[in-house]
Specification:
Elements (H helix, E strand, L loop, with lengths): L20 H8 L3 E5 L2 E4 L1 H20 L3 E2 L5 E3 H7 L1 H4 L5 E4 L5 E4 L4 H11 L8 E10 L14 E11 L2 H21 L4 E5 L9 E8 L5 E6 L17 H12 L3 E3 L5 H4 L7 E16 L3 H4 L2 E3 L5 E3 L1 E8 H11 L1 E2 L2 E2 L10 E5 L5 H16 L4 E4 L5 H11 L3 E5 L1 H5 L3 E5 L5 E4 L1 H14 L6
The chain binds adenosine-5'-triphosphate and magnesium ion (MG).
Adenosine-5'-triphosphate binds next to strand 8, strand 13, strand 16 and helix 10.
């Protein structure tokens, strides 16, 4: 993409309405525009990152054997009356009446709807196990929408629902989700720690929240610092294996890590003092096992092996897709701007032409642009006539991991400058070598053509 043809409305001033750094940077980098309290337009740069995050979520869900689908945002109140949640949910639910005076709502979550789909089409235990998911906009009329996309009213969530014959099978689904979530966040360059949590209005017995440690996080968390040393890395997981998923789940959850709702001071004190941590975190996901809480009242039963109807065991599992943009920026920025992890960056590399209009510099930039394109990598090429300082400031603000600077002086010696956004380190290289170096880094992340 050539910057001269793109739509990137960066702001010079720091917007006064934003209290935390991720919100400020998303506004300044022209990623979002607020349209009403907690409701945002996703401008092209923000939309690109949102799509990248969704793509990772889809890939990891499907790797775990979960099946994508799409349910509507608007739901009929009748389903929610069946589960008893129409009255229980409270003012966070946006209630709407259509022209025929029918009660509708903008879905804050989809347990009822998915249970309805299940009971309409699945009759036998032979169709289990089944996990369906979608990525869809939700609406919750939060009392205090704030921090930009972190606590919106309209927000994008991946929500998935498992249906199993027995509690053991449903716990396997729970463990499978836990492991696949860890992998999902790691691919986004994030460490999200599974912490034992409280189930709240969804209800249920077992639940973990995934928290990204950050000073601006809304949750208070208590953990054993050794938990931050555990990583999945590129270890292959057999998601069909009950034992393997349980073992990995236990590896990630055996150390103390809890939100304030489940915190137990007596157990916490038993951790060696130097490893005890009290901190703040951003909730980027949550998994639940809740058994037959919805299947029983809504009649979601299957015929079991003995021919008798049994209510299915269910769980629901959510990832805060739009909140993740804020969480990633909170975890990865400096005083110049955002630093995107390679896995989610909106463009893989930025090219800055120091002398637009100079035939040699323009030709060198065009050649670099084409080389990256041939390797399946996306470039943002600053081909404007702005002065160099301004170009660098914008590139640093929007946070592309790699930048190549092209100018007549370097070209005379056959080199361009390659700069790493995270370390700020630069080196001079012949253009082909700069391309190869950047391509190799992305290849290691599974990005670009081989
Ligand atoms: P919170 O405690 O932050 O209000 P929640 O526990 O009510 O969230 P869940 O029902 O667990 O939310 O939804 C799954 C995920 O959706 C959460 O882990 C979070 O990442 C995201 N999410 C929830 N509410 C919002 C919101 N208002 N804005 C953006 N993302 C949200
Ligand atoms: Mg939650």
């Amino acid at each position: 993409m050539r910057l001269s043809r793109y739509f990137l409305p960066v702001l010079k001033e720091t917007p006064s309405e934003a209290q935390i750094v991720s919100h400020r940077l998303m506004l300044r980098a022209g990623m979002i525009k607020q349209q009403a309290a907690g409701i945002y337009s996703w401008l092209p740069l923000g939309f690109k990152v949102l799509r990248n995050i969704e793509k990772i979520v889809h890939e990891e869900q499907q790797r775990a054997g979960h099946i994508p689908m799409l349910m509507p945002t608007l739901q009929s109140a009748d389903l929610w009356r069946e589960s008893g949640r129409y009255d229980a949910y409270g003012p966070e639910m946006l209630r709407i009446r259509d022209r025929h005076d029918r009660d509708m709502l903008y879905g804050p979550t989809n347990e009822e709807m998915i249970t309805d789909i299940f009971r309409s089409h699945v009759n036998s235990y032979k169709n289990l196990p089944l996990t369906l998911y979608h990525i869809q906009w939700k609406f919750r009329d939060e009392v205090r929408p704030r921090f930009g996309v972190m606590r919106g009213r309209e927000f994008l969530m991946k929500d998935g629902y498992n249906f199993d014959l027995t509690k053991e099978d449903a716990l396997h689904a729970y463990n499978r989700h836990l492991v696949s979530y860890v992998r999902t966040y790691e691919r986004m360059g994030l460490q999200a720690i599974p912490m034992r949590a409280d189930s709240g209005p969804i209800g249920g017995d077992d639940t973990h929240e995934f928290l990204v440690l950050a000073e601006t996080g809304e949750s208070e968390v208590f953990y054993d610092s050794a938990v931050t040393d555990i990583r999945l890395g590129d270890r292959a997981i057999n998601y069909d294996s009950v034992e393997e998923c349980r073992a990995v789940m236990e590896e990630f959850t055996s150390l103390y890590a809890r939100t304030d709702e489940t915190h137990d001071a007596a157990i916490f004190e038993q951790i060696p003092e130097e490893r005890r941590r009290v901190a703040r975190g951003i909730e980027v996901g949550q998994i639940f096992y809740f058994g037959t809480k919805y299947s029983e009242p809504m009649g979601a039963t299957v015929q079991g092996p003995d021919g008798k109807p049994v209510p299915v065991h269910m769980g629901s599992h959510g990832i805060g897709v739009s909140r993740l943009l804020g969480a990633i920026i909170e975890a990865s920025h400096d005083d110049k701007g955002i630093i995107w992890p390679e896995g989610v960056t909106p463009f893989h590399v930025g090219i800055v032409n120091l002398k637009q209009g100079d035939a040699e510099a323009d030709a060198a930039c065009d050649a670099l642009y084409d080389s990256f394109g041939a390797l399946g990598l996306e470039v943002l090429y600053d081909d404007t006539t702005e002065r160099a300082g301004g170009k660098f400031a914008s590139m640093d603000l929007i946070g592309l991991p790699w930048r190549i600077t092209v100018g007549p002086r370097g070209l005379k010696n056959g080199v361009v400058e390659l700069t790493c956004r995270r370390t700020g380190e630069s080196e001079e290289l012949p253009p082909e070598q700069a391309v190869e170096k950047v391509a190799a880094i992305y290849r290691a992340h599974g990005i670009g053509r081989v």
